[in-house]
Amino acid sequence: MLLTWFQRGDDGMVVKTLTGNKAVAHAVKAARVKVVAAYPITPQTTIVETLADMIEHGEMNAKMIRVESEHSALAATLGAAAAGARSFTATSSHGLLLMHEVVWWTAGARIPVVMSVVTRAIGPPWNIHVDHNDIWDQRDSGWIISIAENNQEVFDLTLQAFRISEDPRVYLPMIVGLDGFILSHTVAPVDIPDQEKIDQWLPPRRQPYVITPESGVVMGNLAADEDYYMMRYSIQTAMVEAKKVISEVDDEYGEVFGRKYGGLVECFHCDGSKYNIVIAGSWSGDAKEAVLKLRDEGYSVGVLRVRYFRPWPDEEIRRLLSTSKGVLFIDRSISFGGKGHLLTEAMTNLAESTNLPAVRGVIAGLGGVDVGADEFYELTKSFIDEVEENGPFYDPLYWHIPQVYRGKYPERLPGYGKFSYERR
Amino acid sequence: MPVKLRDFPRTHFNMPGNAACPGCPETMGLRYVKMALGDKAVLVIPAGCSSVIQGISPKSGINFPILNIVFAAAASAAAGMKAGFEMLGRDDVQVVVWAGDGGTADIGLQAMSGAAERGDDIIYICVDNEAYMNTGIQRSGATPYGAWTTTTWTGKKEHKKNVPFIMIAHDVPYVATASVGYPQDFIEKLRKAATVKGFKYIHLHAPCPVGWRFDPGLTPEIAQLAVKTGMWPLFEYHNGKLKISSFSRLYRVKEKRVPLKEYLKLQGRFRHLKDSDVKILEEYIDRLWAWLDLLEKAPNPSGTARDLLGK
Q1: Closest residue on chain B to A222 (Cα)
Q2: Which domains occur in chain B, in start order?
Q3: CATH of the domain at A35
């Protein structure tokens, strides 16, 4: 608790300086989680450490299952949740990949649980730094997937995750992503609302069924193919509903606790801007800084920060593509043989767009390579200047190669080159 | 307390529509579990024959509430369920894992070892048909030496992994072997396990007519022959004390055992065995009993190491 200081406001709100991981633990405690099952992995470890500390010292009334692997971590979390207890787990990178089978099983079981994913690169070679390939790897599994920009949002999203996933219109598990080290191990002020207010706002646990001796419930035995198909259909239906619920919860949370983020996306000067950056996670702050500087210089530019990767913000992206002259996607992940994830997803909304904006997809920051506000400034400025000078183009896979290798390797690979729309 | 046949409930526990093969030992075993534990049990079932035997959702051919779970995580899911029930003030619920030998000896061993080491308060039953029967008779760690399977066409070259001994080494409060050929013994052990706090392991021998290539009418008889030949000793390990169960006591003496060939000759999976192979299996049986002898005679601290630690 060395890194914590207290300041109690008039409304019972406590401001603490917390790392992202401690913010997670405080939100889990505030949500009155009953069972925690987790396994250590860098950079998630301090979440499980802090929760163990809270539980052992009686600050939190929960049972901690110190499992022997992440596969077991999520299985135990699911088991506890199926019995009716609010449950939580957390992991990163390889741990997330090891539990991937259970990730799918949990969503298919329609059992609400909450999991923190502290984003981290996947080996080999070993690398413990921030990267989004681990979290986006869960894309198709049926989980609601959110990602925070700062520690306050980590706390707020984690708390909201219980509300969203346990909403009867949703009943899906939810991931809250936070960037490894950038958030997980960096302290920042976090407002922690009064517990009484949280208790009033967060209803007791709801879930579609519980498996008790009296219930007669059997979950997961064989199903006819047609029934299986329709269960998949119902997950998609829940995702549609989740869009509404996420927006409602964001509004309510804003009213009760004074912080509102915008739902599936955060629009930072994006409405009415000619150019926009689409980005997710902690480095959105650097992109915003660059945008502010560019706006000072007279550029019409904004940031659309993706807060939820699943359900994908179709409406918001469609609107952005329809109204922008150019959109710059910044991905901290790559689908090998394909493209960046944000760009790939957003391009599915292009058919719904009334406009064909200039598009560039940038792959940057893999394995934690630092990309500062100055680099976002350069990337954005050169994109805008190119469009203004040469007209719109499609440039889906531009590699923002790390400084030490820059100039030694091509930024565009054959078959993924830039072409101007005029040439079509 | 000895169990009497006349005390068994007469309820039908396996409902019409279950998808078990004729002569299936698993439906027999599940019936005994229900007889022993009544209506306070919840099953956790990983991938295996029992995933299929339940029949087609939304109905189930097994009269239990069930959480089906991925292959490798039965013990962990059960540990989670138990924790959930405890936190909700429901200490009366028995969470029971019903897993095959693949789900126990192979892919599920890590999760089970974790739960055993943590002392999670669950009953873990390994229903051992000695191969991956659900996928079509592939060898598992629990397949015995010499047995034909679809991944050991000329017979398995290695001996059966002894999971009960592995669990004894975990120093859990209760480990037992049982057989579908001796329902009273199995039920008695289940009822005892239900009174013990902590991790309980019961390894149920379950001859499979399809995978072992024998007449489906012979399941109980084959199961009993496994015990009578000494191939499957029934024993109980409770709080650090190993005891040979009554149905096996006679076969401690080698000469009293039914000749192994009587067991082997009824099963197609052993049809190709040479005399030298039979000898290897007989030596395995001798070694098995020598181990049991050692464990039985071992000086018994007043309980498990766990007890000595005051837990």
Answers
A1: B56
A2: 5-308 (3.40.50.970)
A3: 3.40.50.970
ipTM of the complex: 0.94
Of B60, B31, B50, which is closest to residue B102 (Cα–Cα)? B50
A28-38 in b/e form (b: 16+ CB < 10 A) is bbbbbbbbbbb
User: Six-digit token pair at A327?
Assistant: 């959109």
- Mean pLDDT throughout A273-285? 98
Find the CB nearest A213 among B40, B55, B82: B40
- Using an 8 Å Cβ cutoff, are A168 and A138 in contact? no
What's the domain count of chain A? 2
Same domain, A122 and A190: yes
Rg of chain B (C-alpha set): 19
**Angstrom distance (rounded) from CA B52 to CA B47:** 9
The pLDDT tens digits for B241-280 are 999 999 999 999 999 999 999 999 999 999 999 999 999 9
Q: Residue B291 corresponds to which amino acid?
A: W
Q: Is A356 on the interface with B (CB under 8 A)?
A: no
Contact list in A for residue B40 (CB cut-off 8 A) is 213
Chain A residue closest in CA terms to B115: A67
Q: How many residues does chain A have?
A: 424
Q: Which residues of B touch A214 (CB under 8 A)?
A: 39, 65
Comparing CB atoms, the residue among B77, B93, B117 nearest residue A79 is B77
Would you call A81 an interface residue with chain B, using a CB distance cutoff of 8 Å? yes
A286-332: pLDDT as tens digits: 999 999 999 999 999 999 999 999 999 999 999 999 999 999 999 99
Backbone angles phi, psi at A230, to 5 degrees: -70, -30
Q: A-chain residues within 8 Å CB-CB of B99?
A: none
Digit-coded pLDDT (tens) for A162-211: 999 999 999 999 999 999 999 999 999 999 999 999 999 999 999 999 99
Cβ-defined contact of A218 to B54 (cutoff 8 Å): yes
Chain B positions in Cβ-Cβ contact with residue A87 (cut-off 8 Å): 80, 84
